[in-house]
Amino acid sequence: MSSYQFNKEEFKQEVTSNVKNLFRRTIAEATPKQVFQAVAYAVKDVLIDEWIATHKEYEKEDAKTLYYMSMEFLMGRALGNDIINIKARDGIREALDELGFDLNVIEDQERDYALGNGGLGRLAACFLDSLATLGYPAYGCGIRYKYGMFKQEIKDGYQIEVPDDWLRDGNPFEVRRDEYAVEVKFGGYVRTECDQYGRNHFIQENYQSVRAVPYDLPIVGYGNNVVNTLMIWDAEPINTFNLESFDKGDYQTAVEQENLAKNIVEVLYPNDNHYAGKELRLKQQYFFISASVQRAVNKFKAKHDDIHKLPEKVVFQMNDTHPTVAVPELMRILLDEEGLTWEEAWDITTKTCAYTNHTIMAEALEKWPLELFSRLLPRIYQIVEEINRRFVERIRQTYPGDEEKVRSMAIIYDGQVKMAHLAIAGSFSVNGVAQLHTEILKKKVLKDFYEMDPWKFNNKTNGITQRRFLLHGNELLASWVTDKIGDEWITDLPHIKKLALYADDEKCQQEFMNIKYQNKLRLARYIKENNGIDVDPRSIFDVQVKRLHEYKRQLLNILHVMYLYNQLKDNPEMDMVPRTFIFGAKAAAGYKIAKLTIKLINSVADVINNDKSIKGKIKVVFIEDYRVSNAEWIFAAADVSEQISTASKEASGTGNMKFMLNGALTLGTMDGANVEIVEEVGKEYAFIFGMTSDEVIAYETRGGYNPMDIFNNDQDIRRVLMQLINGYYAPNNTELFRDLYNSLLNTLSTSRADTYFNLKDFRAYAEAQKKVDQAYRDEKWWAKAAIMNVACSGKFTSDRTIQQYVDEIWHLDKVTVDMDE
């Protein structure tokens, strides 16, 4: 257990002296932002001791180490989480209180770490938390983006992207590690030299390169003294400024090096619908992967003589296809720098690399144009070509005469490098992230690979960390749970099952619903402050927050709101429980339909929220700049969790788990991890609707369906769709939502319409929404259902997911860190 003893007086003294040293001010003169910095440095002081001790222990044990490679780590804020994990929150709150500051206000000064943008990055963050809490040696490896994806502002209902300058005030928790900087090379050409033994050596020449410098961030385990590391790479020019070029008047060349470095880490991968965007994306991927693999190999070699033993001490987990260049990069190091034969290098690589697939959507499985890939990474491309040649040979041996197999499985085909195929060929493990998702991969998306190497494939259902999403995000509920069943759930979430004993207890039901009400009040204040909208905390808070994508079907949700509003207008006395529909989502900058959906949500909100005749029965709120820190409040306040993706499209989802943990009921399709959520809590405590994944896949195989049949036969749906193009929600521009209308009906062209079956599922969704309205009226039933959801959330902890990865893929050993030695 943690041996850190919090000393309030010492802490107050340290904060006061930090304010003096950092800002030349007394504590009485300090702003909340300055106090945040001072508190962060005081906390870091504690963390550094544990950090050093942790790494000493790892070295002593010579422990096998995981390198978790991800383009994104959506960390949220650090301070609140860290002080919970060193078990000092109450002490620090009291100390700040005595200094005249409120901990909540101080925590609010910290910017969310802008290192990710969606579920993929948040999953990586939860995994790091669990790895540290379970005591497993691990590094997160990523990029130190100067600007995150973007800060979202809503102007006139439209999403506007503004730079998220999250590092503007510095990051008090990071430590720059100049001593571990490495060089990363791009472009040029490869020269071959033959030595006296007839062996070829490959030398990259005339390349551009950058210096990769790691910044370490502490990842704090809960109450166990373990501090792991998130290692994010910054890029610097090798020669800062070419004076010679400058003197000759060639300013371009003088700053070229600087710009190359700056661009790589400037922003979380840009929208890649143009070539330059794609090139930067590939540069970013190779940049952080090459740096991380070099660092891992150097670290291994510092203690071990035999490079063949690398897989015994190192494992690379590739989080989606973005880090796939880890396979050829490790090969490059083993071949070119360690002088191994191809067979030796391939044996080591395929025992060290493992791949997580996060998507069923074909368009998200990365493919790179050959011309770009070979020009930017000439040596890596040569290696990929050879991997492909040998892989294709193996396919032909396994399936003689079946060229169709080669076409569907080759790594290089049709002028493209297929990264998922490379990841599968180069890994010893390929996993999906929910039972349904993994089955679809095996039977459909990656069927040929599964048939050839079934032993590689396995499932690891995603999870979330209860320490952030309950203990930190919902203090009232966390205290209530601990009062009822003790605090074991904090590190052993299945323990929460014991709450089921209280689900029928009327007093407990009232306490629970009162906590939910308090959390709804907190969110209502946030909405009033940020949106200027008054929402009734006694209404049903019906929430959909996640990335905006057509398959997630925010459009279905808002179409239903329009339909409900029509019903109310026709029948103002209609009996319905007041409902607040809450949306939060960022759309990728170049994703037109997604951005138009945001505009539609806001246009509908303008009309509905200002219509006095419906007496506040419906309110629509779009929360600007959805991110981890406001998500915590949203999950705590939600009554209904909208998880309505088209079945078979959502790999897992983790928002669904965060809502469940906070006592919201799932309204959803049988997709992703919803299937397992319903398995745990029982169908009676969720609202499930819509087509199954088998039905969707069957329709897709036949080329879709004809939405015009529904349009012609269902006048309620027709009315809603006509309101998209008759100016009802855009009186000044009737054509504004034409693209949305066309995407649903596409009367103008032969391409498929309503690809995500919004209209097909509409009636089933409306029925499920009616059931929600009926069920909410029975307060006792609702309270019981909500408590049961919390009680059944035990499976969905990232601690369980990580333990499965460790047992079945990584084979790491737990390390105990004792601070008393």
From TrEMBL:
The keyword Glycosyltransferase applies. GO terms for cellular component: cytoplasm. Keywords: Allosteric enzyme, Carbohydrate metabolism, Cytoplasm, Glycosyltransferase, Pyridoxal phosphate, Transferase. It comes from the Bacteria. It catalyses: [(1->4)-alpha-D-glucosyl](n) + phosphate = [(1->4)-alpha-D-glucosyl](n-1) + alpha-D-glucose 1-phosphate. The modification N6-(pyridoxal phosphate)lysine is found at residue 658. This is Alpha-1,4 glucan phosphorylase. It comes from Qiania dongpingensis.
